[in-house]
């Protein structure tokens, strides 16, 4: 129930919920854990749904849970802080993607093996939450890079999520990929001075850069006016290792504002004047807004190929989705047919059982009728399911200790008649004949046992000793002694070695010795004229020195 509530809380789409439940059902049929985790990743497709992995874990058999933990993302709520040297010749050694302009946080998407970030223990899929003590939850990508440049030693706090944001085009919705599925678009170059590369480089987003020209020879870039169909001031060239390159300006960026001056309608001459009017510049640009104006033919062809690859990838994902839906429907149909087959087999088995019961009942009736014809009013023997008293006749009172191991069915007819007469004179039955042991016990508890209900009249002391218990080597409560002239001895229906299953309705199968003794004492001393004992008669022993024949 708790897992269902968590699913309803984290997943709104009913089709995705149905898919999740189908995936779990299919796993419990096939027990193929890698397939299950792969299927789960299709629906647990964003960081907010990652808690579902923990919610599903209790549904996984214990023998698979270690492998399940290895296959699912390692998530951590704890923050980890590292310090990196921004002026290191090799850079920070990491690339990131994301930012508030992409409606997500900033995530590490690539690490240089053996670089600063890698050696400090950062991982691909870590979300950066603070830089130099400042929260970056509302910062753009470029603002984060500028924040990094403010300190020589950069303090970075991260938490591991295990997923990376992906957005290939401005019109495409934000998607997420697991670290083991992600292929970085960034090369192994340093990118900017900070060693960072922006995700979604073809997105046209506004950013701000801050440039100080004091002590420098210039910005190291050129600007051009756009054509009639695309007016504006654009960066047409950026020199490598220049100040403009260091702050992240690129060919094709459109300048929209410089030190508060709107560049929407200025001409080239006025733009140059404003840029040279101050040694400290705050420049707002739209990244890549005019990139196509300065592309070579080769770059245009490459861009076209990239767009075609994206289109093919989208078509491939659609085909996969269609195939997945088809597979799901086929699996649902197989599940429906399997359930139908099971129900049909169950109906057939029930009908077979009904016919067998009818046959057994008819045979019992036939046997009863033949018995009455042969023996008149005598009581017929009980069926296999009826607990009998005749199998376990009592020993004589003056030889209790001698007869406890005797096979009772070896008594001669005269002795049995004598015992029966004694019972009639006492005015009670040794065993309750209509007792159904299955009304008190499960079949597993009494399988193979001769179960009987004794009703002993409370006269004097019970004089019955027990031993064993669930925690003993014997594992059950058994009669260890019957003392002469006690109520148990006078009753005659219980002997040494019999197992006591219940006293006055209280089951003692799983009881310890002290508990059983207390239950017997309480039942004997409380009100009422009788005590009910349910016993399992001990099988006859075969020791010659304990056998007495009459």
Question: Topology of this structure?
Answer:
Elements: H1 2-10, H2 14-30, H3 33-43, H4 51-56, H5 62-71, E1 80-85, E2 94-99, E3 104-111, H6 116-119, E4 126-131, E5 134-135, H7 141-148, E6 153-160, E7 163-166, E8 175-178, E9 206-212, E10 221-225, E11 233-238, H8 243-246, E12 254-258, E13 261-262, H9 268-276, E14 280-286, H10 297-375, H11 400-403, H12 413-426, H13 443-446, E15 451-457, E16 464-468, E17 477-482, H14 487-491, E18 499-503, E19 506-507, H15 513-525, E20 530-536
Helix pairs in contact: 2-3
What is the structure about, briefly put?
With 550 residues, the protein is an alpha+beta fold. The protein contains 15 helices and 20 strands. The protein starts with a helix and ends in a 14-residue tail after the last strand.
Characterise this structure.
By secondary structure, the chain is an alpha+beta fold. The chain has 15 helices and 20 strands. The strands form five sheets. Strands 1, 2, 3, 4, 5 and 6 form a six-stranded antiparallel β-sheet that branches. Strands 9, 10, 11, 12, 13 and 14 form a six-stranded antiparallel β-sheet that branches. Strand 2 and strand 3 form a beta hairpin. Helix 2 packs antiparallel against helix 3. The protein is elongated, with a radius of gyration of 44 Å.
Index terms:
550 residues; alpha+beta; six-stranded antiparallel sheet; 20% strand; elongated
Described by the principal axes of the CA atoms, the overall outline is elongated
* Residues in helices, as a percent range: 25-40%
Count all strands and give the number.
20
State the separation between the terminal residues, measured CA to CA.
69 Å
* Radius of gyration (Å): 44 Å
Give the biggest sheet. Answer: 6 strands, antiparallel
**What oligomeric arrangement do these chains adopt?**
single chain
What structural class do helix, strand and pairing data support? alpha+beta
Low-confidence stretches: 183-204, 378-428, 543-550
Strand content: 15-25%
Mean pLDDT: 79
How many separate helices?
15
């Amino acid at each position: 129930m708790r897992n269902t509530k968590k699913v309803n809380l984290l997943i709104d789409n009913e089709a995705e919920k149905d898919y999740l439940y189908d995936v779990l059902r299919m796993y419990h049929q096939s027990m193929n854990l890698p397939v299950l985790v792969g299927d789960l990743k299709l629906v647990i497709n964003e960081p907010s749904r990652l808690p579902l992995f923990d919610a599903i874990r209790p549904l996984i058999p214990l023998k698979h849970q270690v492998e399940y933990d290895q296959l699912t993302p390692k998530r951590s709520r704890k923050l980890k802080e590292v310090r990196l040297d921004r002026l290191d010749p090799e850079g920070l050694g990491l690339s990131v993607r994301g930012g508030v302009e992409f409606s997500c946080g900033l995530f590490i998407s690539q690490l240089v093996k053996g670089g600063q970030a890698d050696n400090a223990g950062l991982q691909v899929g870590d979300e950066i939450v603070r830089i130099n003590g400042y929260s970056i939850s509302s910062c753009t990508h470029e603002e984060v890079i500028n924040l990094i440049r403010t300190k020589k030693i950069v303090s970075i706090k991260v938490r591991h999520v295990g997923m990376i944001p992906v957005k290939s085009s401005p019109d495409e919705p934000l998607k997420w990929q697991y670290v083991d599925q992600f292929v970085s678009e960034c090369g192994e170059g340093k990118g900017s001075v900070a060693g960072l590369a922006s995700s979604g480089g073809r997105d046209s987003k506004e950013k701000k850069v801050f440039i100080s020209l004091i002590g420098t020879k210039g910005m190291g870039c050129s600007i051009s006016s756009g054509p009639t169909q695309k007016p504006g001031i654009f960066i047409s060239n950026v020199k490598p290792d220049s100040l403009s390159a260091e702050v992240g300006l690129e060919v094709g960026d459109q300048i929209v504002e410089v030190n508060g001056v709107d560049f929407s309608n200025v001409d080239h001459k006025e733009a140059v004047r404003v840029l040279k009017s101050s040694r400290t510049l705050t420049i707002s640009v739209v990244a890549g807004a005019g990139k196509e104006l300065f592309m070579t033919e080769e770059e245009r062809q490459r861009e076209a190929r990239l767009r075609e690859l994206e289109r093919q990838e989208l078509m491939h994902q659609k085909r996969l989705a269609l195939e997945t839906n088809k597979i799901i429907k086929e699996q649902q149909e197989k599940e429906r047919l399997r359930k139908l087959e099971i129900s049909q087999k169950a109906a057939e088995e029930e009908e077979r059982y009904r016919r067998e019961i009818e046959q057994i009942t008819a045979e019992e009736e036939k046997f009863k009728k033949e018995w009455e014809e042969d023996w008149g009013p005598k009581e017929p023997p009980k069926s296999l399911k009826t607990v009998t008293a005749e199998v376990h006749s009592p020993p004589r009172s003056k030889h209790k200790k001698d007869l406890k191991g005797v096979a009772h069915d070896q008594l001669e007819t005269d002795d049995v008649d004598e015992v029966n007469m004694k019972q009639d004179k006492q005015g009670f039955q040794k065993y309750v004949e209509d007792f159904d042991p299955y009304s008190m016990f499960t079949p597993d508890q009494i399988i193979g046992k001769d179960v009987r209900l004794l009703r002993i009249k409370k006269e004097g002391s019970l004089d019955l000793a027990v031993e064993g218990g669930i925690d003993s080597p014997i594992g059950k409560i058994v009669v260890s002694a019957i003392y002469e002239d006690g109520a148990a001895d006078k009753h005659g229906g219980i002997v040494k070695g019999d197992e006591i299953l219940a006293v006055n309705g209280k089951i003692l199968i799983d009881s310890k010795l002290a508990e059983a003794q207390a239950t017997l004492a309480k039942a004997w001393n409380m009100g009422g004229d009788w005590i009910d004992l349910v016993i399992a008669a001990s099988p006859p022993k075969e020791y010659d020195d304990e056998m007495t024949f009459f």
